[in-house]
Each structure stands twice: as C-alpha cells, then as structure tokens.
Design goal:
Elements (H helix, E strand, L loop, with lengths): L1 E5 L13 H9 L2 E4 L6 H10 L3 E3 L7 H6 L3 E6 L2 E6 L8 H8 L5 E3 L7 E4 L5 E4 L12 E9 L2 E10 L6
Parallel strand pairs: 1-2, 2-3, 5-6, 6-8
Antiparallel strand pairs: 1-9, 4-5, 7-8, 9-10
Length: 169
C-alpha cells in the first residue's frame, strides 16, 4: 500500500495549488494523508476527488467550513497499521513522550503545524512523522512531503521528497 503524506498546504494563501510533483504522487498513491492547515475548501474537494482514499484532519488555520468536514484527529487502520493524524503536537522538546502518552493505541502519528520535517519513534510509542510543507518552507531549505509504504502490516520505505524551489517572479 502506497501512502502520500502532506500537511500545511495553505492553498491559496501560500500557493495557488499543490506542486505538480505532489499531484503526480497523489495519482499513484493508495492513500493520501493530510495533517491540516488546508486554509480553503477547494483543495479538500480536489484531493477528495483525485485521491483513492483520503485520511485528513483540520489545522489551526482552518475555518468553520473545513472543521465541519474534517475531524481534529483522524484515525484509520491500514493493513494492520494503526494510524492517527493530528495537526499540532506541541513543542519539539518532549514530543515523543507526550505523543506516546496521548496516542498509546497507534503505530504511526502524522502531524503538521511546524513546517519542519520530522521522523522519530517514541520509546514504546508511535512513529512520529511530519511531512513538512509542500508550499511554505518557512525556515527550511526546501518545501517537502513524504511517501511511505505499508508492507506485511508494517510501515516501510518512508521517504522525504524535496520539491524544487519556485521561481520568485
């Protein structure tokens, strides 16, 4: 099972649309995961229509229309892998401990908010993944997203994808 993970898309405030490379990844994915901060409903509509399956939550920049359609925490089981998706996990310091306590029943927790890619495993707790942002790199050198594979009931092949910098003109 092929997954694409994204967060903090901020469309149309930070970009008019997702980068073409990310749309290409969506087209080949079995599951698309979005960890919030969509900003506007049309991107949700587009991902719902183009993704085979979408698992998503809302973020702190998402208004009433998005919150009416998305949960604060989304959960799913994918071929035996228990997944949760949430926008915010708090400060990086102590994140593993907090997430292990807050999500003891998941194998993988996908989150966003910081725009900083993250991949760690909490001791005795979930693998924590933040795909960064495909449209707003902030202080990061690149805009990013993640892909992963679920094989034999386990997460494998997690890959961070760097997107080309947009021409400032």
């Amino acid at each position: 099972m092929r997954l694409v993970l994204m967060a903090d898309t901020h469309v149309p405030k930070r970009a008019r649309d997702l980068p073409a490379a990310l749309w290409d990844a969506v087209a080949t994915a079995d599951v698309v995961v979005h960890a919030g901060d969509w900003v506007d409903v049309p991107l949700l509509d587009a991902l719902e229509s183009r993704a085979r399956r979408l698992i998503a939550c809302y973020g702190n920049n998402d208004g009433a229309a998005l919150r009416a359609r998305l949960p604060e925490v989304a959960r799913a089981e994918l071929d035996g892998v228990r997944l949760a998706v949430v926008h915010e996990t708090g400060d990086a310091k102590g994140r593993e401990r907090r997430c292990a306590e807050a999500y003891p029943d998941v194998d993988v927790l996908v989150f966003g908010h910081s725009h900083i890619p993250w991949d760690t495993t909490a001791p005795g707790g979930p693998r924590l993944l933040n795909p960064g942002s495909p449209t707003d790199r902030r202080r990061q050198p690149y805009c990013t997203y993640l892909t992963a594979v679920i094989e034999a009931g386990a997460l494998a092949g997690v890959t961070l994808h760097r997107l080309p910098r947009r021409d400032p003109s």
